[in-house]
Amino acid sequence: MEDKSIQQGAVITFIAYLLWGIFPIYWKLLEHIPAGEVLAHRIVWSLIFMIVLVLVTGNWRHLIETVHLLKKDRKKTLAVVTASIVISINWFLFIFSVQHGHVLQASLGYYINPLISILLAVFVLKEKTSKGQILSFILAGFGVLYLTLSYGVFPWISLLLAMSFGFYGLIKKTLNLHAMYGLTIETLVIAPVALLYLIFVPAEQSFTFSPLFVPDNLLLIGSGVVTAVPLLLFAAGAKRIPLAMVGFLQYVAPTIMFFLGVFLYNETFTVHHMITFALIWIALVIYMASIYRDTPRRKRRKNIAT
C-alpha cells in the first residue's frame, strides 16, 4: 500500500513539474499584453478560482478558521503579506522573462533555486549542511560569475527568480499552511492592488466584456487555473514521496524550459551559456548525491533515537 502511495505521489508531482515546465508556451501567447497587466489578471483570476474551489470542496469553514488564526498572530500575518508580495514578484519576473525572450534565464533561475534554498537554510534556519551541498553552491556561484564576466551579461532575471522563489519557500516552511488555504489567502491579500492596477494603470484594457469569449479573455481567465492547478497537484503529490525524490523531480520544469528556449524559441545559446549550465548541472548532481547519501543516515539516526 505504501509503495502504491509513493508511485501515485511521484506521478502527481511529476505532472505538476511538467505543467510548470511547459507554461512558458502559455505566457508566450500573451506576449502582446504588458507583463504587469497579465500579472494583475493572474492574481485576480487565481483568487476567483480558489474561492470557487474552496466552496465546491466544502472547505470554506476551514479557510475562515485559518484566517482567524492568522489575524491573532501578527508575525504570521506579516509573513503571509510578505509571501504574497514575494510570489507576485516571482510571477511577474517569469511572465516578463518569457515575453521578452529570456526563457533560458528563467530555466537557469529554477536550476539555481535549490542552491539558494541551501544558503537560506544555513543562514536563516541555522540548518546543518553537508560538504557536498556547500561545494554545489560554490560551483553554481562560479557558473553565474563566469557568465557575468565572460559574456558581459549579469543574469539578474535568473538570480531574482531563484531568490524570490527561495524566500517564498522559506516563508511557506515557517507558516506551514495548507496549499489550498495558503494560495487563497495570499491572492486575497494582493488582489486589491491588482484590481486597482487594472482599473487605473493600463491605457487600453486588454480584457473586454463585450465580446467576452475571445482568445485573450479566455487566456487571462485561464491564468488562474494555470497558477493553481500545478501548485495543488504538487502539494498533493509531494507529501506522499521522499524529499530526495521531490528534489530530483523539481529539475523536470527547468529542463523543459531549457529545451523550449533553445529549440522552440531559438534563443541565443553560446559556449559561455554552455559552460555556465554545465557548472550548474554538475553542482546539482553533487547536490542530489548529497541528499541521497544523507537520507539513509538520517533514518539510521532516527531509528537509533527511537
Description:
The protein has one domain (2-128, 157-263). By secondary structure, it is mostly helical. The protein has 12 helices and no strands.
Keywords:
single chain, 0% strand
Number of discrete domains: 1
Instruction: Give the C-alpha Rg.
Output: 20 Å
Overall average pLDDT? 86
Kindly estimate the percentage of residues that lie in beta strands according to DSSP: under 5%
State the end-to-end CA separation.
Answer: 24 Å
- How many individual β-strands? 0
Give helix % range.
Answer: over 70%
Give a topology summary:
Layout: H1 2-28, H2 35-56, H3 60-72, H4 74-99, H5 103-123, H6 131-151, H7 156-175, H8 179-200, H9 215-238, H10 243-249, H11 252-264, H12 271-305
